[in-house]
Design a protein that fits this description.
By secondary structure, the chain is mainly α. Helix content is about 65%, strand content about 5%. It has one domain.
């Protein structure tokens, strides 16, 4: 045993392992082995991965489970939810987490090159699902929006699948268009058409929040993929102009903007600004250390959607500034780590994997930022959940699958750096 240990971990072995990683030929008689014991150049099994990232995700899921229960425990007192038990949302959220973990364990087994081959087809599937959900006989409507496909155990939201599909498709697109990325029409128009189609389908639901996230993912990947700077900023300007036009042409969107600018105005405080004012009251009551777990008053039928879009307000009221700050730090670290893994993949000449992972980082980080901004009154109200924490089956499911793919990319990065192959 000691001889094997000395052979594998000797300075010569490390020098040869580094040479193999850089593309050089090993010298001497010491075989290059990775941590799993496989000879260099042979396939390796899944062994090394970022355990801190995985445990952080599990911690956020656990916190979400506790806070969803706390935010929803009083809902059965409302006649609208009178038929539900006090643990209805807790048990369903726990079921969603269980299903998502199983799906994540399956997704992490799939090699990245398989995802790359499937990326265009997954995007087409996302478009079909977004079209199907608009059919009155198929899609489920809630509060004037038709965004869900009833699947028995859960209602699936195609827009969540579209976020992951866009990250994959945009990464695949940039790899295929790498030679013409400096030419405006050849590089941009296919992506512009794809984004326009998905935007029209999402706005027909309507789900402008999801469209903003998907557009940010697409443009972010184009920017990271190295498209011409002028083309990128022109695309951003066109998109911002389109958003402005949509707001200007829609009376209820304009009213939401006015309510955001002055939520305490009596005209809006009992209407479009109602959620925001009670969210701000919740944060104010939380102060530094919060009212204690379960001590929220705003969740007692004052703050609508407290267990979904406005879960952070309940966290702020019950856990205070300290709790909110810890959640923000956790998401900042998670997003940063995702980008580091993506950058490592690009440095290893795995452009699709790197851009896809960074797109997932834009999705998770951007949606978290928007949700926090909405809860704190820094951004207009949008129907976007807090990733990994808020109640919602399809959101948790797609978040977990996306993060499992990130872990898979990290695993393959480590295998390549140890002299193996993916």
């Amino acid at each position: 045993m000691s001889a094997v240990f000395a052979q594998v971990f000797s300075p010569d072995a490390w020098r040869q392992r580094f040479a193999a990683w850089r593309g050089g030929e090993p010298e001497g008689n010491v075989p290059i082995r990775d941590w799993t014991g496989a000879i260099g150049g042979q396939p390796t099994r899944i062994a090394g991965f970022d355990q801190t990232l995985v445990w952080l995700v599990i911690g956020l899921l656990a916190l979400g489970l506790v806070m969803v229960y706390s935010a929803s425990v009083a809902l059965p007192d409302n006649p609208k939810f009178a038929r539900y038990s006090a643990t209805h949302f807790l048990s369903r959220h726990a079921m969603f987490i269980g299903i998502s973990m199983i799906a994540a364990l399956a997704a992490v087994q799939v090699p990245v090159n398989v995802w790359e081959k499937c990326a265009p087809w997954l995007f087409v599937a996302a478009l079909l699902l977004l079209a199907i959900v608009l059919l009155p006989q198929v899609g489920k409507g809630v509060n004037g929006a038709r965004r869900w496909l009833p699947l028995g155990v859960m209602n699936f939201q195609p827009s969540e699948f579209a976020k992951l599909a866009m990250a994959m498709y945009a990464a695949s697109y940039m790899v295929r268009k790498m030679e013409v990325k400096e030419r405006f029409f050849q590089a941009m128009w296919p992506m512009a058409v794809s984004l326009a189609v998905i935007g029209l389908l999402l706005l027909a639901e309507p789900d402008m929040g999801a469209f903003i996230v998907i557009a940010a993912v697409a443009l972010g990947i184009l920017f990271l993929g190295g498209v011409n700077g002028r083309m990128f900023f022109l695309s951003v300007a066109v998109l911002l102009g389109a958003f402005g036009l949509m707001i200007a042409s829609s009376p209820w969107r304009r009213e939401r903007i006015f309510a955001f600018l002055n939520p305490w105005d009596p005209v809006y405080s009992q209407g479009k600004g109602y959620q925001l004012t009670h969210s701000l009251i919740a944060f104010g009551r939380g102060e530094w250390t919060g009212q204690g777990l379960g001590g929220s008053v705003e969740k007692l039928h004052y703050l609508p959607e407290a267990h979904t879009d406005f879960l952070m307000a309940v966290i702020g009221e019950e856990l205070g500034f300290i709790g909110v700050a810890l959640v923000i730090v956790a998401f900042f670290w998670l997003t940063r780590r995702i980008f580091v893994i993506g950058r490592q993949a690009v440095m290893l000449d795995r452009v699709f994997a790197g851009l896809m992972v960074q797109g997932i980082g834009i999705w998770i980080g951007g949606q978290t930022l928007i949700n926090l901004g909405v809860n704190l009154g820094a951004l207009p109200t949008k129907g976007l959940t807090l990733p990994l924490l808020s109640y919602g089956g399809s959101a948790i499911l797609m978040n977990m699958i996306a993060l499992a793919i990130v872990v898979r990319v990290d695993v393959e990065n480590r295998q390549l750096m140890r002299g193996g192959r993916t």
